[in-house]
Inverse folding.
């Protein structure tokens, strides 16, 4: 059996039509969902970018971020944001040792920084340069007038300005839609598929697209799916409280994000056409998921903020397409996560992991095997933790302070904090879920306060 894993960065579950939001145009994701088992309660094991991908590559939990050592060479300094530990084996390494052709294509800039070691085990890998802070070309000089067209003002503008300056330099000379990043990712992935289909051995292909991550700069034809009025391209804004942005700016950024979602969906569709054209559907397991979402003013936040672990940030799509069509079009509410990818692939192939693994083999759902119970789920981001079960969701600092509690049966959007009315539930969930899963008190790195991440 061949294996294809597709990771789409920053894709909110509620921005995939198959999950119920028909305003978003994602016909190809919707078509794939009809061929797949769709997980309705999928969450990252931890976030943001590097944390989530460590779990995807290894099947090991990154949270609760113990023994974190900041990478001196990188801009980001947040718990868990570090290379895959040398004593952890990657899925690509296991499959490569088992005779698989292992291939990796991505434009997710952090993954091809050599000190993160994300290419371990891949016999062929292609990194598409130019996203966000990729210092691919000398940064462009941009006038304040031009900056005013793509950025809002305020105290958080400088970092966004640096990102946009680099973006303008990296995308200079772009003409056709195929020159955008998501098309480049999927076009290269199609080339890899074609090459793999001509070989005798099985293959593992990891396709990791950074869009719809900011800066949001989609082609105009996708913008017009959502807004037929000309307006500024508000490409980026540093994460944080959203009040200073204003409703118009948030709406415009949301439009551009939605347009990028549809662009990614279009090129995923081209990839799936090639997939079926090469007759790979009957002997290839395909998994698609995201690492986290992004906020556009919901609950008073924009971007990715550690204290804002609400559905717009935590709820992600997760699809598994079985080669024989088992459970196609069905849904499951079993908790699924990023660290389940590796054990699911190994389970499907009848392989044993070469070392400890924390995730669950979700392939057992197709075989009718009994699954290990997951009555609750926990995750972490920077200095905050999150937990939920069938009834309640909890957000708190790693110390347990500042807890917020929500009854997700009556309040699925997590709009009404009831922690003050139910301190006993807060205490129980933090003790029995967060501390139990973390193996004791969480490490305190003295970093409490909202993270402002671009991962």
């Amino acid at each position: 059996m061949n294996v294809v894993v597709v990771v789409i960065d920053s894709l909110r579950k509620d921005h995939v039509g198959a999950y119920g939001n028909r305003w978003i145009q994602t016909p190809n994701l919707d078509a794939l969902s009809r061929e797949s088992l769709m997980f309705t309660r999928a969450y990252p094991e931890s976030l943001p970018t590097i944390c989530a991908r460590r779990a995807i590559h290894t099947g090991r939990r990154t949270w609760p971020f113990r023994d974190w050592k900041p990478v001196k060479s990188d801009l980001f300094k947040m718990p868990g944001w570090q290379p895959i530990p040398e004593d952890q084996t990657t899925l690509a390494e296991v499959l490569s040792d088992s005779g698989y052709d292992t291939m990796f294509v991505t434009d997710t800039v952090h993954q091809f920084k050599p000190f993160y070691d994300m290419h371990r085990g891949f016999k062929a890998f292609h990194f598409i340069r130019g996203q966000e802070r990729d210092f691919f070309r000398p940064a462009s000089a941009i006038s304040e007038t031009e900056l005013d067209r793509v950025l809002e003002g305020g105290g958080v503008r400088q970092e966004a300005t640096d990102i946009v300056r680099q973006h303008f330099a990296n995308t200079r000379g772009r003409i056709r839609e195929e020159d955008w990043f998501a098309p480049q990712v999927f076009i290269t992935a199609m080339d890899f598929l074609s090459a793999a289909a001509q070989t005798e051995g099985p293959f593992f292909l990891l396709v990791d697209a950074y869009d719809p991550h900011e800066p949001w700069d989609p082609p105009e034809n996708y913008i017009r799916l959502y807004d037929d009025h000309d307006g500024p391209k508000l490409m980026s804004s540093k994460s944080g409280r959203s009040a200073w942005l204003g409703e118009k700016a948030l709406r415009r950024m949301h439009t551009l994000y939605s347009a990028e979602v549809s662009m990614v969906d279009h090129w995923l569709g081209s990839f799936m056409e090639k997939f079926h054209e090469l007759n790979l559907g009957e002997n290839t397991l395909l998994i698609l998921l995201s690492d986290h979402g992004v906020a556009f003013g919901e609950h008073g936040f924009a971007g990715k903020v550690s204290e804002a672990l609400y559905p717009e940030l935590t709820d992600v799509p997760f699809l598994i397409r079985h080669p024989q069509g088992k459970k196609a079009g069905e849904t499951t509410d079993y908790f699924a996560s990023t660290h389940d990818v590796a054990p699911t692939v190994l389970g499907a192939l009848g392989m044993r992991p070469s070392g400890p693994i924390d995730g669950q083999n979700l392939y057992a759902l197709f075989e009718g095997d009994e699954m290990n119970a997951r009555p609750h789920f926990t995750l972490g981001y920077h200095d905050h933790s999150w937990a939920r079960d069938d009834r309640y969701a909890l957000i708190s600092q790693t110390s347990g302070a500042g807890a917020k509690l929500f009854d997700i049966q009556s309040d699925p959007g997590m709009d009404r904090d009831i922690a003050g009315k139910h301190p006993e539930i807060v205490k129980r969930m933090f003790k029995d879920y967060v501390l139990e899963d973390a193996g004791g008190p969480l490490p305190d790195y003295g970093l409490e306060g909202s993270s402002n991440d671009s991962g």
